[in-house]
Amino acid sequence: MKNPKNSEEFRLQTRHKKAIEMLVYQGLTQKEIAEEVRVNETTVSDWINNNPTFQKLYDRELEKAAAARHRMYKSKAQKAVLKLEKLMSCGNSAVELAAAREILDRAGDKPEETISTRVTVESNPYAELTTDELRKLARLADDRKT
Q1: pTM of the model
Q2: Contact 45, 30 (CB under 8 A)
């Protein structure tokens, strides 16, 4: 009777699984993966692009990783909301406004119209003048000084 752990199929599946783990969780390049699993880089490329079994295992692992990230994010959400709530009374009006906006955005309460928070402190009486007109004024000011 044949030992399944010695079979070519078992070795291939083991290499596939190791390569997939390195792709999904370690972010290694195809070259680095090839070195680790002791195959040619083109073999790794072929697994990724042309091997339905590998692709199925890879997709499944990506889904598992995404689900794990989602669970982790969800577990941190309450802490993030509490942090935003604290920031809303930190004493810095810009930070407080940003925190309030973030909470409202996350809650889906975006206003239909935009409110401008830009304030003009002073109007510039020279804003409408051309460069030549500004130069003439500067010369007149210089002449009055002398």
Answers
A1: 0.52
A2: yes
